[in-house]
Design brief:
With 491 residues, the protein is of the alpha/beta class. It has helices at residues 18-28, 47-55, 64-67, 82-88, 129-139, 147-160, 171-181, 199-206, 225-229, 251-261, 312-322, 345-356, 358-380, 412-423, 455-458, 473-490; strands at 11-13, 32-37, 40-46, 76-77, 96-99, 106-110, 164-168, 189-193, 210-214, 236-242, 264-268, 276-277, 280-281, 288-292, 305-309, 386-388, 396-397, 403-408, 430-431, 462-465. The chain has 16 helices and 20 strands. Strand 4, helix 4 and strand 5 (96-99) form a beta-alpha-beta unit.
């Protein structure tokens, strides 16, 4: 992390000369210094200004007041909000002195690095996290034993209406346990969507099964029903569906396919805590579902996951495998080869506290999505470029883990440039997940007869906007206005 220079290392009196200014700029590392006249702000000198003087062969012992007496420099009151500062910072204005308007004294300075960035996701711990962590530490139970693991599992089960919940060290481990508990064998074929985080496909590969990569829908970005039907063979044993970015899949149609073809339905719900289909939690529709509590998820334990199922046999086997395959009735006797996929008591303590506020967080995220929709519609009328906002369908409750849009008419290069340009506004934007079919490590799992044209199309112009539940409306408006400014350059 960059170490910022104290304000004292940026201040120089106008009686000092150019040589003094060069030394000060080299010392502070900020590429500029602020000229003072009787302790009051006078001007900003940048390293670019110094280069111009050197090219003009201006003597380095020339006093600064002679060189910059007519220079007009921009400053802001030190009490202004970060968003006001962000609007003023640009490729031309990279540093702004923050002054007391009454005394004209320099109080601080602003650069993009120093102003609060609008991150893609930001967590705030506003509940009992510290209290429960402290209790966990004081109890001495900080690893996988302790009351919070059981409490978290029990309360999560109530939250999503599931009989059995098993806390894991992360969501990826949960997916791997789900496949093993469901009886998936090496060389069994498992259908997976082409767009998801790689944990979905890696969990299949890591147990020796064969992923069958299929296409997604152009409107929801979730797994395509047509593509599933075209990919089922005698070797197909299961489908892993992903509720991408919080958008539920068409569960009735998928369940019907699974029933007709005797296939297991495993759900990757990593991005969809709280998402519902026909007013039911999405996890109620699968044989086994897995959630993630990574640091940027709707609720978090830092790292962590949860396997949920209503089938006792799946739960019992997964429970044993999670704990090295150890017998539940005979300590240190192992019935099978398992894993160490356990969650710690400290992680579970955080998770329990987060879960207590989950409904509020989800409500906020849905409200934030409404604000994005409102402001994106406003800017759309002034743009030639068409923005596609997330699909909203009756009986589908999207929790908008990451608010995603597609920008029609731009290509992958333009998308990447847009993301880079928005960094200059101190806004973190992400592209869609890359399709598995585009990554060389998954090429051997592709089938020529399976068309992947939709997933290979939508990732090129898809971006995810900052989606923290703690975003303010002013920030959302700033993000959308900044997006508009950059998109106009592409029109």
């Amino acid at each position: 992390m960059k170490k910022y220079s104290p304000i004292s290392n940026l201040l120089i009196d106008q009686d000092k000369n150019i040589s003094n200014a060069i030394r000060l700029i080299n010392k502070n590392g900020e590429g500029a210094c602020f000229v003072l006249s009787k302790s009051k702000f006078k001007a900003v000198i940048t390293d670019g200004d110094i280069r111009s003087l050197i090219l003009k062969k201006t003597p380095l012992d020339t006093p600064l007041f002679k060189v910059f007496k007519n220079k007009k420099s921009f400053a802001l009151d030190y009490k202004v909000k970060d968003l006001t500062i962000l609007k003023k910072l640009s490729k031309k204005i990279k540093i702004i002195p923050l002054i007391d308007k009454k005394t004209k004294k320099v109080i601080d300075y602003a650069t993009l690095d120093r102003v609060n960035k609008i991150k893609i996701y930001d967590q705030q711990f506003c509940g009992n996290e510290l209290k429960y962590i402290t209790e966990s530490v004081k109890s001495g139970w900080i690893s996988s034993a302790g009351k919070y693991v059981n409490l978290f599992e029990e309360n999560f089960g109530k939250f999503i209406n599931s009989k059995y919940c098993l806390a894991t060290c992360n969501g990826t481990a949960g997916l791997q346990l789900a496949l093993k508990a469901a009886g998936i064998q090496p060389n069994d074929e498992i259908i997976v969507p082409n767009i998801s985080f790689v944990a979905t496909i890696n969990s299949v590969i890591n147990i020796g099964a064969k992923p069958v990569i299929v296409d997604v829908c152009e409107d929801s970005y979730n797994i395509s029903i047509k593509s599933i039907l075209n990919s089922i063979t005698k070797k197909t044993k299961a489908i892993i569906i992903v509720h991408l970015y919080g958008q539920p899949c068409d569960l009735d149609k998928i369940k019907k396919i699974c029933k007709k073809n005797d296939l297991l339905l495993i759900q990757d719900c990593a991005e969809a805590i709280g998402s519902k289909y026909k007013n039911k939690n999405i996890s109620e529709f699968g044989d086994i579902s897995v959630f993630s509590f990574f640091g940027n998820k709707t609720i978090t334990t830092g790292e962590g996951g949860m396997l949920v199922t209503n089938k006792r046999s799946y739960f019992q086997l997964a429970n044993s495998l999670r704990d090295h395959g150890m017998s539940k009735s005979r300590k240190y006797w192992h019935d099978q080869i398992g894993y160490n996929f356990r969650m710690t008591n400290i992680q579970a303590a955080i998770g329990l506290a987060q879960l207590e506020n989950a409904k509020k967080i989800i409500k906020k995220k849905i409200f934030i999505a409404k604000l994005y929709k409102k402001y994106l519609k406003k800017i759309q009328t002034n743009l030639k470029t068409k923005i596609i906002i997330p699909l909203e369908k009756k009986n589908f409750t999207n929790t908008f883990w990451l608010y995603n849009i597609r920008i029609l008419g731009i290509n992958e290069i333009q998308r990447d440039k847009l993301i880079e340009n928005l960094k200059t506004y101190s806004i973190e934007i992400r592209n869609f997940f890359y399709p598995f079919s585009k990554m060389p490590i998954y090429k051997k799992f592709l089938r020529k007869i399976i068309n992947l044209k939709i997933s290979e199309k939508i990732y090129k112009n898809g971006i995810c906007l900052p989606s923290s539940p703690f975003l303010k409306e002013t920030q959302i408006k700033y993000i959308v206005d900044s997006l508009k400014t950059e998109l106009k350059k592409l029109d």
